[in-house]
Design goal:
This protein is an alpha+beta fold. The protein has a single domain, classed as 3-Layer(aba) Sandwich (Glutaredoxin), CATH 3.40.30. It is 46% helix and 14% strand. The chain has a four-stranded mixed beta sheet, sandwiched between helices. Helix 3 links the parallel strand 1 and strand 2. Helix 2 crosses helix 4. The longest helix has 12 residues. The protein is globular and about 40 Å long. It starts with 6 loop residues before the first helix and ends in a 5-residue tail after the last helix. Keywords: Cytoplasm, Redox-active center. Pfam families: Glutaredoxin (PF00462). Belongs to the glutaredoxin family. CC-type subfamily. This is Glutaredoxin domain-containing protein.
């Protein structure tokens, strides 16, 4: 799946009920900014502070507080092709990525337009 591909089109091909990727896709598309996190993770805390500091109110799913969180964490690792799954950010239902992608977008000036387009930021 491409980095900014819509979850809707990706998930249209997934049909099995209870699929963690299906659940992630549904949750990611329900709000303008969605962060999959682990409550004790310092990188997750930093990404949440980044968005809050920008005036964005992200929806945060703490995987360590979800009964199916481990399944979702493994699915996110497969999706990202990484050994670390969190934090993972979706904006406007589209996968932005992990901390490195979000920070790169912030530094190169593409994060704010994404947030505006998703209706998460009005300035």
């Amino acid at each position: 799946m491409h980095q900014t591909e819509s979850w809707g089109s990706y998930m249209a091909t997934r049909t099995s009920l209870g699929d963690p990727l299906e659940r992630i896709g549904r949750l990611a598309s329900e709000n303008a900014v969605v962060i999959f996190s682990i409550s004790s993770c310092c990188m997750c805390h930093a990404i949440k502070r980044l968005f809050c500091g920008m005036g964005v109110n992200p929806t945060v799913y703490e995987l360590d507080e979800d009964p199916r969180g481990k399944e979702m964490e493994k699915a996110l690792m497969r999706l990202l092709g990484s050994s670390s799954a969190v934090p993972v950010v979706f904006i406007g239902g589209k996968l932005v990525g992990a901390m490195d992608r979000v920070m790169a977008s912030h530094i190169n000036g593409t994060l704010v337009p994404l947030l505006k387009e998703a209706g998460a930021l009005w300035l």
